[in-house]
Amino acid sequence: MARFRVVLVNPKFEGNVGAVARVMANFGFDDLWMVDPCEIGDEARRRAKHANYLLDRAKIVEELGEAIQDASMVVGTSGIVSFGEKHFVRLSITPEDLSEKMRDFEGTVALLFGREDQGLFQDELQRCDILVHIPTDEGYPVLNLSHAVAVLLYELHSIPVQELYPTRATDVERDKLHEFFADLLDAIEYPEFRRERTEIMFRRMMGRSVPTKWEFYTIMGVLSDATKLIRKGKE
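The structure corresponding to this sequence follows.
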């Protein structure tokens, strides 16, 4: 089962942080992380109401990497949606789609929410395995931070949540798969100017599909065998 972590990236207004804590308590989520947040004071506590305990236990870090280093899946949220395969960095799924994908997922899932004014930056989006967009009216498409958190957690709250168990095996498998893919690109002398986008595209594709452990090992085996054959042919 999945264990969800809410990660607020550089939130600007403490009132929004307090409202996020309240929403988390409403839906039974208790793992809050903040990356370089604003000062958390009285306004945040007033907005949190009976969820001040989440503010007290929230983990505050300076860099995003610290908040996602042990996550098995990183899910980003964005108010901007792209269409067309060439714009894969911002290709997204709906909260409902995410909920379905997470039902059989095992491990820690980091849910990233960006700044109120600018959202997640491009380099932060590139670290996400899946991108989620909440459909809204075209006349006013950008949701308040706490409202966006509420919508996403509402869709996820019916999934059974368990205490955090060690999931390093899942992390290692995911990272190893991307290493094998990168090694294959080396073997075929893939053009450097296209490499970063291709690696991000592969990460997103694997994130959307949420492979099982057996599927991970099968894909890794294929990539490894292909790389060895290519290099043997060059000898």
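The two ends are 46 Å apart (CA to CA).
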